[in-house]
Amino acid sequence: MEQVIPNHYSKLLLNDNIGKNMSFTDRSPYLQSLLFLFFGVLVGLSGIYDIVSYESQNIVSIFSVISGENVPDSSNISSSSVFGYWFIFIGIGLAIIQFMMLRRKKTIVIKDGIVTVDKINFFGQHFSFSESLDNYIGLRYRTFLDSKGMFAKIQHIIELNHEDENKTIPLFIAYKDPTVRERWERMARELKKPAIINSADGDIIRPVEDLDKPIRILAQEGKISDDFSIQEPIPNQLSIKHKRMRTLIRQRGFTFDIHNFIYALMASAFVVILVLSIKNSDLVSIAISPTIFNSFLVIALITPFSLLIMTHRLEINGKKLRHYYVWPLLKKKKATLRLDKAEDIEIYINPKTNLRFIGINSDERTIHFGEKLSDDTLFWLKRYLTHVFVTAAPRD
Questions:
Q1: What is the pLDDT of residues 147-169, one digit of tens each?
Q2: Rounded distance, CA 317 to CA 243, Å?
Q3: In Å, how far are 125, 251, 269 from 342, measured between CA atoms?
Q4: φ, ψ for residue 369, nearest 5 deg
């Protein structure tokens, strides 16, 4: 099911003064836009410098003809001027775009039960609306996987949700905040609104009284069902191994990510330049034979591309669930979550890639897993992990 996702401008919105009366601004990252604006100006100036140099050489050429000297090669000059015009075009375009990005913003005021939004869009046009706070459905919490390969980040968004998504407003946006769920629950209580979880199949409303309750407690109260049987066959896309003290859940195959490919290219280029620079030193050329050196160069070139062979792994160890990124030569722990503290597990959808994944949340941690898995496999894994959380003993 395709979802309509509201377009918020901020990458970071730390709103700590939540209450019946408040005001704040949702806008594009100011520093980022300024840096790109400055970069665009530099690119344009470099193009101007190139053209000025070209015109100067033309003047020199005219005097050279008059004096009977050799005329410089005009093909190099003309090609240089073409690049200059391209640089000016790109620089002006980049500067204009960033300037327009700086202008766009939403000024949001909540006062006396009325929500007022004054919006300036990308083209500088003004729009505004006012809406009663009572017409808002609740406080929605959603996570967004900003995929950048091994440096992927999870963006946490808390928003005041309206039936018309164009009237949905952000209250809090952050990439890394261990208290985000506590903040979401506190906002829901202060505004006396239901807490909403944004899943792949639509919004799920949690009553305020169910907040802070772990999955095992909700199951005891009959609000979550645990119908999983350990006799069920494991889907082909998953590998589950039970060892002495832990259970390993691995997504079969490896996940290709264009960002990891770029990182590998950059790392390989850096290593090759470094190794060739070392080779040119007299000390190394005397101490190391060409065969050993060339073998080392090949290894140094190939090793960064092991980043492309990445798999995701969940590890249930004792009373904790750990999430790892695994490569042939590296293992990176992304998050650790206590089993008895998990408050919800849902299937979410990434609006950028339109792929679904498992999201597990507690007050302290969030784990995303399985973006390349099929819907049937994700549903099976959700039931399996729900069973794990329901049967987890509370930890003292």
A1: 666 666 778 888 999 989 889 99
A2: 10
A3: 45, 21, 43
A4: -155, 140
Model confidence at 351, pLDDT cuts 50, 70, 90, reads: confident
- Report the chain's mean pLDDT, rounded to a whole number: 79
For residues 364 and 183, the answer to whether their CB atoms sit within 8 Å is no
Query: Using an 8 Å Cβ cutoff, are 28 and 101 in contact?
Result: yes
Cβ atoms of 202 and 161 closer than 8 Å: no
DSSP-H helix ranges across the chain: 30-67, 74-103, 180-191, 215-220, 258-279, 282-287, 290-302, 375-390
Q: CA-to-CA distance for 347 and 200, rounded, in angstroms?
A: 6
Q: What is the CA radius of gyration of the chain?
A: 28
β-bridge mates for residue 314, sequence order? 249, 323
Kind plus residue range of the DSSP H or E element containing 347:
strand 344-350
CA angle 175, 381, 218 (to 5 degrees): 75
Report the predicted TM-score, pTM, of the whole model to 2 decimal places. Answer: 0.68
What are the pLDDT digits (tens) for 51-105? Answer: 777 666 655 554 454 555 554 554 444 455 667 778 888 888 888 888 888 888 8
Query: Which of these ranges, 59-63, 333-337, 382-386, has the smallest mean pLDDT?
Result: 59-63
Give me the percent of the chain exceeding a pLDDT of 70.
75
CATH code of the domain occupying 238-256+310-390: 2.30.29
3 bridge partner residues: none
Query: Within 10 A of 22 (CB to CB), how many other CB atoms are there?
Result: 14
**CA 303 to the chain's CA centroid:** 26
pLDDT, average across residues 285-292: 59
Instruction: Indicate the angle between helix axes 30-67 and 74-103, nearest 10 degrees.
Output: 160
**Residue 333 contacts residue 317 (beta carbons within 8 Å):** no
Could you tell me what percent of the chain has a pLDDT over 90?
Answer: 14
Tokens of 58: 């033309």
DSSP assignment string, 78-126: HHHHHHHHHHHHHHHHHHHHHHHHHH-EEEEEEETTEEEEEEE-TTS-E
